[in-house]
Amino acid sequence: MNPVRRLVPSKGPAGLAALRLPAGWKSSPALGACQRALAVALTLLAACGDAADTAISPAAADRPAARITAADFAGSAACAGCHEDQYLRWAGSTHGRAGGEPGPETVVAPFDGTPIAFGDGTVVPLVDSAGRYLFEVRQEGRAPVTIAVHGVIGGGHLLGGGTQGFVTRMPDGTARFLPFDYSRQLDDWFCNTGTRLERGWVPITAEMALADCGDWPPRRVLGTLRDFSNCQSCHGSQISARLEPGARFETRWTALDINCESCHGPARRHVEVMTAADAGAADFGDIGLSSRITDGVDESLDVCFQCHAVKDVVQEGHLPGARFADYYALKLPILGGDIYLPDGRVGSFAYQGTHLMSSCYVDGNMTCVSCHEPHGLGYWDINRAPLASETDDRQCTSCHAAKAAAPETHTFHPPDSPGARCVSCHMPYLQHPGVGGAVPFARSDHTIPVPRPELDARLGLVSACRGCHTDRSEFRLQAQVDEWWGATKPLDPASAGLLAVTDAMGADLAARLLLHPDEPGAMPRFQGLAGFLAGWVPPGGGLAADAAERVNRLAETPDPDLRALALATLHVADSTDGTAAAASGESLAVRRRWAMILGFLSQNAMLGGDLEAAESLLLRARAVLPRDAGVLRALGSLYHDGGDYSRAITAYTESLAADPVQPSVHVDLGITRAAAGDAAGATREYERALSLNPNETLAYLNLGNLQLRSGDLAAAIRSYERAVAVGPEFSRAYLNLAIALGRAGRIGEALPYARLSVEFAPADEAARAALAQLEAEAARR
Amino acid sequence: MRTALLLAAVATAGLLGWPGSHQTPPDGRALVASLGCGACHAGVPDGGEAIRSVAPPFGEGTKELAPAYVFHYLADPRTVQPGIAPARMPSYDLDERQRVALALFVTNDRELRGVDDAFRAAMGRHPDADRATGRNLFEAMNCAGCHLHPLATFRVTAPDLSLTSLRVREEWLAGYLADPVTIRPAGPQPGRGGRMPDFRLDPGEVTAITDFLLDLGEATDPGPVAGRTHPSAPAWEPRALSPFSMRTAETLIRDRWSCLGCHQLGDDGGRIGPRLDGIARRLRPEYVRAVIHDPGSLVPGTVMPASLEQPDRLDLIASYLLLRDAPWTGSEPVAGLPGPLPADTAAPGAAAYQTLCASCHGTRGAGDGFNAPFLPAAPTSHGDSAAMSLRPDDTLYDGIHAGGWILGKSHRMPAFGTSLTDGEKRELVQYMRTLCRCRGPAWSRDGRAPR
Questions:
Q1: 3-state secondary structure of B397
Q2: Beta bridge pairs of residue B269
Q3: How much is the ipTM here?
Q4: Taking the CB of residue B305, how many other CB atoms lie within 10 A of it?
Q5: Do the chains contact at B251 and A294, CB–CB below 8 Å?
Q6: Which helix (H) or strand (E) element contains residue A550?
Q7: What is the C-alpha R_g of chain B?
Q8: CA-CA distance, A55 to A33, in Å (whole number)?
Q9: Do B447 and A486 lie within an 8 Å CB cutoff?
């Protein structure tokens, strides 16, 4: 059996930290200067869904679209009066019931006072006498904490595993997820152990500590904020989060269900225009809204992929109605990730973006609304004739009519048995591997594959056959498939190539296996090229003629993700950086992606210790996207790590010139100035950071470090106390406070903070050492 | 009663030679019979018997005609031979090549006696205009509807005139009869029936025929349609559409649906069906809507498939077409019109292929049908063995059933869905396999599955 090749060599979540995240994590020798921990940062990288496969000419793409703002949205209630039929169907749908203010209508989890028992405390979900939904967190030796539920996310509707989560508004203006989630199928509370135990989603038991839940204290915010762990613009409607410079974060949403405008775009002007028209003041030439029924294939998919796909953020601030490709890239998460298996099926956690790998899309024109009726979220056939259920064959046979005339000759299962349903074999429910096996979260396979029991097993999947015939071996099941259908439909060439390629192969053979410029489907071509880039494109090493020709043809595709990846591949291979000259002819959407890819590769090189390659890649990114705040910041971080503080300061300064509202870059710059011996300059930067964001934990933390180093223990303790107050999820804030208090001889006060730092970062050696030292000191006294 | 009238019509034709000089106001019924409308159109009392009794038959054993005579006669039936009674052979816009080919086919003179310089020169210019081409044209234009020929069959495919009052607007009909403009360049069934020629009617005749046809469905028992329920369409008026809805409908019709695969709208679209510009001036709203919903209910044997779309959107399209402000015009002439079936195609699916597919995909499946130049994407060449070997039979079937769009191909390829039976679709697939002389990929042929 061949090994299944990971697409790029680096382990860990996919992503393009260089552009979207605080670059790097640096520690001062004494106490650890802190940025938002890398581990936290990287989990954001695999963000949420996209994909315009449409050509974007530089001129058209770069024309600034009218900026859409929260004020442009009217809310679903405004639609009900004129569009009652659609409104009522929507209101009863899983979108219409997807969440909202807490109340009997929205909450399916038991808020009946029954405690959720952890090993180190209990959490009691309850409704108080005023009707407020609360979690009371009780831990021995600590004051009880009452957390108000301000938003309900999800209704536990989905067949393969329905869940419900809760958010609370924090003092810094963010709205954050609580770690207590509810599974309707389990009828039990569970939490996501990601970032701590890394055991996926697990039901809460008395064997667990509260801090085993990765989101305790709450850290995942609603809305897309570069410096936070999130991917939560989807769990509601028109969620936006942004820093009000000098004040707090502003987090707003129109609703926490999925409202009309999530798909139709902003409608306030539509309401105004139509009201005026009713009054005879306008004709109906411009109704202030576009029609979804005339959407092309990718336009239509983009609507659903706003939420139903993993995507990388190209630019923050997306709101419905904005040009999707300007904000999101659907295929970039493939880089370095295990999100998709080589044939496009879900490798960790990926929603329904796998549709882009399905033959129905690649070789046809299928969209989500080919089967899903978009208002009531029932089912219909390709001609919009309603269907009774999600297993109705006419979803498939209204196109695949040849299979409908004598289905038993294709299904080999008794006509009315579940095994004879199209979706039983071609769209089986598969548990998302990324969440583990303890909490049901299975989603119907939207790559719509042919069952291949042996390959499925090799990829770690439960084949559709095995899903029912649990008593049979994969070998027997494969033999049955072979007998009934003979050879089955081949995989697309790129997927087949990824399964066949091995590290030992030469570049020529790998190119033939992985690069398929003439095949349809941007997603499989992207997967193949990503695999090739990961294994056979040494920086500056050039490409053999055949590979170069293939990559050049891939660079001609209109799909911005694939085009950018091909250009970046040429750029990496190029020994002279001549490829950068091509950037001027590319749209901003492509150039941003191109630079993101180079940034990602640079980050990989940095993690691998090759600072020279990392620098070369970032300089190329800068050539493609000059004066980009993210690229310049990444460059600063790189120079800092290499000890070149002078150039780091220049790069950070340029980043701030490109985007002055970056408190965390001021922190980075402060760290570099401090390292360069300029304590006054560093302090100035931290203060600037705080003037932009008074809740910037890392500014307080690093300021405290400076003060501690200068011997001003009292000031340091005050700074650390502020850090703990505004960033309770930062274990280093507790640690440094504990150390400072310890140095001040306040051992008794220091100990609880040291314990918290270990509780929230059990693997942090510095925290353990500090705790041990403090405990020893306490014992000695 | 009907027999008597028929006899009267024949007698009139016999006495006066051809209709055309009226001592009394013309009789619409007699005119329709004597002009031979029923040779092409369904739904008229005389099925063409009258015209076939006077129009000369062709073929072995018939009167010898000189090829050059036919060649010149076809150019202008009125002037070729002064002295012959006012000829009522209608005028066709035939080009020189077509006239050469037809002249060679309808005459038996293989020695080509009496060939004049003009005809000889024309033959020199069109070496491909042979008797076979002439035969194809003869059948394609339904010449046999009037002129019997042992090698040609005639088919009644033109619109059912008993539906005239349901179908068209009176003012349009009168103008059309006075000056016919081509509506379907290749005829109602491409390759199977000609287009409307110019009968050179005088105003009195136009009025008489118009009145007769408009009364036909209601007042007269139309013989050929007796025995079946007379079609009807419920009263309907287009609903008012905002400019926004008009744009939506236009996008659907132009960029999403298959309508313009066959129909022309503005500068865009095919030449198989009637041009859609200004149809409100030609057709009645209830007819337009009924045909869009279920073409076969009003036009038996039509090549237009029944749409699989939902009624609300079909009504939107009907309203759009009727509200769209455009003058009515006919179609422009089209080069390379198809002849009837190639001689070797008695195979299953061949007839349906020639009728439904050949207009775009070509009579031999080379992707070169007469309609191909009017499509945004080249039609698939079903004769391309290499490409067709990659396509499973089921994919071909699905494309016929659900249209090109679902295969990621042109949305202008229509879905024949319910308009063809399962057996007919399978026969078409089988016929395509004879064109490519190939099979689908091995993986698509299920192991032990009965096929």
A1: helix
A2: B264
A3: 0.88
A4: 20
A5: yes
A6: helix A545-554
A7: 23
A8: 45
A9: yes
- Asked if A291's CB is within 8 angstroms of B448's CB, the reply is no
**Residues 6 or more apart in contact with residue A465 via CB below 8 angstroms:** A425, A451, A453, A472, A477, A480, A481
Does residue B280 contact residue B272 with C-beta atoms inside 8 Å? Answer: no
Domain ranges of chain B: 56-145, 243-323, 350-444
CATH number for the region B350-444 comes to 1.10.760
Between chains, do A402 and B398 touch, taking CB under 8 Å as contact?
yes
The burial class, CB within 10 Å (0-12 / 13-18 / 19+), for A61 is: buried
Which amino acid, A624? V
Return d(Cα A177, Cα A315) in angstroms, integer: 23
Residue A402 with chain B: CB contacts under 8 Å: 393-395, 397-398, 401, 425
pLDDT tens digit sequence for A414-450:
999 999 999 999 999 999 999 999 999 999 999 999 9
Any idea what DSSP says for residue B198? B
∠ at Cα B254 (B249, B258), nearest 5°?
105
Q: With a cut of 50, say whether residue A82 has pLDDT above it.
A: yes
**SS3 for A689?**
helix
B240 touches chain A (CB under 8 A): no
> Mean pLDDT, chain A, as a whole number?
89
Reduced 3-state DSSP string for A632-654 = HHHHHHHHHHCCCHHHHHHHHHH
* CB-based contact A402 B401, cutoff 8 Å: yes
Whether B446 sits inside 8 A of A486 (CB atoms) is yes
The residue of A485, A491, A492 whose CB has the most chain B CBs within 10 angstroms, and thus the best one to mutate to test that interface, is A485
Are the CB atoms for A632 and A622 separated by under 8 Å?
Answer: yes
Q: How far is CA B449 from CA A320, A485, B443, B444, in A?
A: 48, 7, 12, 11
Taking only the tens place, the pLDDT of each residue in B253-278 is: 999 999 999 999 999 999 999 999 99
C-alpha torsion angle, residues A260, A261, A265, A268 (rounded to 10): 110
Whether the CB-CB separation of A683 and A715 falls below 8 Å is answered with: no
Could you write out the DSSP letters of every residue in A667-685?
HHHHHHHHHTT-HHHHHHH
Does the beta carbon of B227 lie under 8 angstroms from any beta carbon of chain A? Answer: no
pLDDT confidence band for A86 (50 / 70 / 90)? very high
Residues of A in contact with B395 (CB under 8 A): 402
Kindly indicate the confidence band of residue A282, based on its pLDDT and cuts at 50, 70 and 90: low
* More reliable by pLDDT, A64 or A140: A140
Residue count of chain B, please give it. Answer: 451
* B384 min Cα distance to partner chain A (Å): 19
- Cis geometry, peptide bond prior to residue A217 (ω within 30 degrees of 0): yes
CA distance readout (Å), A237 to A91, A96, A109, A262, A702 = 14, 11, 22, 6, 37
pLDDT digits (tens, 9 = 90+) for A20-59: 222 222 222 233 333 333 222 222 222 232 223 333 344 4
B68-83 residues labelled b (16+ CB within 10 A) or e (exposed): bbbbbbbbebeebeee
Backbone angles phi, psi at A627, to 5 degrees: 55, 35
Measured between CB atoms, does B445 come within 8 Å of chain A? yes
3-state secondary structure of A569: helix
β-strands A116-118, A121-127: how paired? antiparallel
- Residue partners of A763: CB distance under 8 A and separation at least 6: none
Which residues 297-356 of B have a C-beta within 8 angstroms of A?
308-310, 313
Q: Give the gap in angstroms from C-alpha B21 to the nearest C-alpha of chain A.
A: 56
Looking at domain B243-323, its CATH class is mainly alpha
